[in-house]
Amino acid sequence: MEQLQATPLCGRHRDLKALMAPFGGWDMPIQYEGILAEHAWCRGKAALFDICHMGEFMFQGDFESGGLEDVFTFSIKTIPLGRSRYGFLLNEQGGIIDDLIVFRLAQDKAMIVVNAATAPKDFAVISGRLTGGTFTDISADTGKLDIQGPLSREVLVAVLGAQVADIPYFKFITTKILGSDAIVSRTGYTGELGYEVFIPAEKTGELWDLLLKNERVKPAGLGARDVLRLEVGYSLYGNDIDEYTTPLEAGLESFVNFEKNFIGRDALVRQRERGLSRKKVAFQVNGRRAPRHDYELVYRDETVGTATSGVFSPMAACGIGLGFVRPDLAIIGTPLTIRHERVSMEATVCELPFYRGGSLRS
């Protein structure tokens, strides 16, 4: 039996009667009162997520001579102080080892936030590519709470003070929370106005309790988080992107800076020159049934691809999903049939995002 890791909040989740399940090697809350209710609360008010399972690394040193500048698909040295940037760690073939965010803390200091399941491999790969500086895994000492929703700013201002009010999108501040050094970042994974709070692991429970005392805040699990992220078209590592998927295939080329050096660049240049053999598409089901991971995508009775994510979307009032098909079929309006054993549903290729009404940039 798999030995699951536990976040500092596992006891609190069980006290709240959360449905727990394995995720990326961790014992995580899937839902509390229900996925749809938690989704609605996040879209309308403020939802609190335990994201302590994510990995955090710290690099200190010269970005260029230490080798960090060449590790990712984006430049570290050009990130302004107090801002963050999203992109990829690639293998030699251009496949995505992980998608991640780097926070520029100082001229010579950066925090790298990675996915839970890939954290050990990420640390090993990055360490192997560095030529200097100090690189440490601070995951065990770092807690992470995400508060997301149109009322999240009001809540954090009430709890942490007015300094939170003016944080722009993808910018962060360093501050004191409960007497400890902390980072409050205006980032998230829901398409709503929201914040990610990094705080010492031993303080996580106290902050969780403090935020939940506010009547505008309710806890939400990974089930609601999956619906929220898919409605706005965000990829999930392990489903929509992985080591066998390149950013070009996934439609994420905008997060690749071809003007700089990085591992995997040559493979991407070759792929761009010869053309793609498959391409990510979004599709809406003609009904309320939800497609699922690994369902077949069929065009005129020919299997042409595979679904990688799928849910019922309350905002679109239908099933939605992502998947990969031949490039000639990745055209808006293309009809698809989604099949799995005796399940069959009709769908249409559509634009992303599925939902455009979020408060993300409010």
How would you characterize the overall build of this protein?
The chain is an alpha+beta fold and 362 residues long. Among the domains are: 5-53 and 140-231, Gyrase A, domain 2 (2-Layer Sandwich), CATH 3.30.1360; 277-350, Aminomethyltransferase beta-barrel domains (Elongation Factor Tu (Ef-tu), domain 3), CATH 2.40.30. Helices cover 18% and strands 35% of the residues. It has seven helices and 20 strands. The protein has helices at 10-15, 35-44, 119-129, 152-160, 204-212, 222-231, 265-274; strands at residues 5-6, 19-23, 26-31, 46-50, 55-60, 84-90, 96-106, 109-114, 134-137, 142-148, 172-177, 180-185, 194-200, 217-219, 279-285, 296-299, 302-313, 318-325, 335-340, 343-350. A six-stranded mixed beta sheet has the order 11-12-13-10-4-14. Strands 15-18-17-16-19-20 form a six-stranded antiparallel β-barrel. A hairpin with a 2-residue loop joins strand 11 (172-177) and strand 12. The protein is globular, with a radius of gyration of 20 Å. The relative contact order is 0.15. The model has no long low-confidence stretch (mean pLDDT 97).
